[in-house]
Specification:
By secondary structure, the protein is mainly beta. It is built from 2 helices and 9 strands, in the order βββββββααββ. Helices cover 7% and strands 35% of the residues. The longest helix has 6 residues.
């Protein structure tokens, strides 16, 4: 007797995930076949696909930050592609507290009354020019009230 391998007739799932209120595709949502350990991300059109599925009922979990997670049920049949369109509902997200701290001492520059007395300062743009990284943009002929303050960051932000 000769044993031959058995080939199952496999099906597929083709799905689209979009925003319920705008009907726009949601890319990069997490799409997971429950219980099988298979997951994928939709493309820029909100489309995803699972191939090689045995004919059976399945559940797919969909989630994305800013949307309510959803589980859908569908059945795959032999040699067929099951099409599913899922609309996720926008939901608010509550984030935990964020604390920003620094290992460096507080870098402040104080303008004292002595600075003002020793330097010939007659208006606010001249005071602003004393701060490193702060530039004054003034149009030709404009008075000092029409100046624009420009900031230049010299220090990168670290975690």
């Amino acid at each position: 007797m000769i044993g031959l391998p058995a080939y199952a007739h496999l099906g597929s799932l083709f799905g689209t995930v979009c925003d319920q209120s705008t009907n726009l595709p949601i890319r990069d949502a997490t799409v997971q076949l429950t219980g099988l350990g298979k997951a994928t991300l939709p493309n820029e059109l909100g489309q995803y696909r699972f191939d090689g599925l045995v004919a059976a009922p399945y559940q797919v979990g969909l989630s994305h930050v800013g949307y309510k997670s959803q589980v859908i049920e569908f059945t795959v049949t032999d040699d067929q592609t099951t099409n599913v369109k899922t609309q996720l509902v926008a939901a608010s997200v509550e984030l935990s507290e964020v604390v920003v701290s620094s290992q460096r001492p507080n870098d402040q520059q104080i303008i004292s009354s002595l600075d003002i007395e020793l330097r010939p300062i007659s208006n606010s743009p001249e005071i602003c020019r004393m701060f490193p990284g702060l530039f004054i943009g003034q149009h030709a002929g404009a008075t000092h009230e029409l100046c624009h303050l420009l900031f230049k960051a010299h220090t990168p932000i670290h975690d």
